[in-house]
Amino acid sequence: MKVVHTIQELRDQLRGQNRAAFVPTMGNLHEGHLQLMKEARQHGDPVVASIFVNRLQFGPNEDFDRYPRTLAADIEKLEAARDVYVLFAPDERELYPEPQNFRVQPPADLGDILEGEFRPGFFEGVSTVVLKLLSCVQPRTAVFGKKDYQQLMIVRNMCRQFQLPVDIVAHETVRDADGLAMSSRNRFLSEAERAEAPRLYALLQGLREQVIAGEMDVAALERAAQDDLTAHGWQVDYLALRRQHDLRAPAAADIEGKTPLVIVAAAKLGATRLIDNLEV
After folding, report:
1. Which pTM was predicted?
2. Strand pairing of 21-25 and 47-51?
3. Quick one: angle between helices 122-137 and 149-161, nearest 10?
4. Residue-wise burial string across 181-199, b where 16 or more C-beta atoms lie within 10 A, e elsewhere
5. pLDDT tens digits, residue range 208-219?
6. Of 45, 74, 231, 241, which alpha carbon lies 20 to 30 A from 90's?
7. φ/ψ of residue 185, rounded to 5
8. Terminal CA-CA length for the chain
């Protein structure tokens, strides 16, 4: 595996390649990330991964400085998996050599709801760095995990509207045996919190089954799941049933007509904020 730190080195490695598959990450890699790399191999060659902790997507009171940076260990994992040909690991000065005054602003009806409501500016930061990384790599395909459901939708819409020649492939959320979605932030959970954490996914599964069974009072279902989390020490930002195609609240006709839905959730357990979702 080649490890490069500059855009010029990256372009030198990829010169003449037009079938690259790309997986952008912020590092601190776990099995979920490695599954994205494996998926990428099915869609292009060579596989390019990036590791960059993007300051633009962190709010003033969020964990940018605390976010784990484990480049040496990440390189070992990628080399052992043997799925990645080039790892692009730039520093901030390489990717942002001057203040990033030109930014991508997602539409408010998608970027300012749910995750965007609780993390103002988050999707602007994500969209801007993804556009910049896609410009650097120029892949044919890019692979994103479904765990970040709203992010996946925004990236997909951005690529379509900018006519970017890249296919966005969605990979299913990778979970531990007890259902907890894999995340770099899971390492911050205490032993007791880790034992409690699977409750979130279990509640999503229960809500999903109720909707499939024909329960129509969506607000009551959401409230019951939120109350259950709160009773067990969680701080809930949102837990909501939405339409898959636009993340708007479903009408009764959507449920009766079997419109594809998704349950999205974000909640804090102690100091650790967990997100998850489940398609219906």
Report:
1. 0.95
2. parallel
3. 60
4. bbbbbbebbeeebbebbbb
5. 999 999 888 999
6. 45
7. -80, -10
8. 39
User: What's the whole-number mean pLDDT along residues 30-59?
Assistant: 97
**What is the distance between the alpha carbons of residues 85 and 122, in angstroms, rounded to a whole number?**
30
Query: Is 43 labeled as catalytic in the residue annotation?
Result: no
Catalytic residue among 5, 33, 43, 171: 33
Q: What is the 3-state secondary structure (H, E, C) of 251-277?
A: CHHHHHCCCCEEEEEEEEECCEEEEEE
Q: What percent of the chain lies above the pLDDT cut of 70? A: 100
Residue 240: per-residue pLDDT: 98
Residue showing tokens 């009171």: 61
Q: Which tokens in the block code for residue 163?
A: 């006519």
**Chain segment 183-236, per-residue pLDDT in tens:** 999 999 999 999 999 999 999 999 999 999 988 899 999 999 999 999 999 999
Pair 53, 26: CB distance under 8 Å: yes
Q: What are the tokens at 244?
A: 């898959």
Q: Is the pLDDT of residue 5 over 90?
A: yes
**89: closest CA among 130, 55, 51, 142?**
51
For 15, 32, 194, 201, the CA distances from 265, given in Å and listed in that order, are 42, 19, 17, 9
Residue 110 has pLDDT above 90, yes or no: yes
| Size of the chain in residues | 280
Compute the Cα dihedral for 224, 230, 232, 238 and give only its sign: positive
Cβ–Cβ contacts within 10 Å for residue 231, how many? 8
Q: Taking the CB of residue 143, how many other CB atoms lie within 10 A of it?
A: 26
